[in-house]
Amino acid sequence: MNIEALSLAFEDNFLSGGELGASVAVWREGHPHLSLGSGFQDPERSHPWHADTPVLVWSATKGPAAACLLHALETARIPLQTAVAKIWPAFAASGKAAITLRMLLQHEAGLCALETPPPVEDREAVAAALAAQAPAWEPGTAHGYHPRTFGFLLDELLRRLGAGESLGDYWRRVFAEPLALDFWIGLPPHLLTRVAPVFSPRAMLPKGDPFLAAFMTPGSLTSRSFASPKGLHSAASMNTAEARTACYPGFGGIGTASALAKFYAMLACGGTWEGRRFFEPSTLECIRSGGVQGPDRVLQMETSFSCGFMRDPVSASGAKIRHTFGPSRSAFGHPGAGGSVAFADPEHGLGFAYVMNQMEPGVLPNPRAMALVRALWQQA
Question: What is the assigned CATH class of domain 3-376?
Answer without folding.
Answer: alpha beta
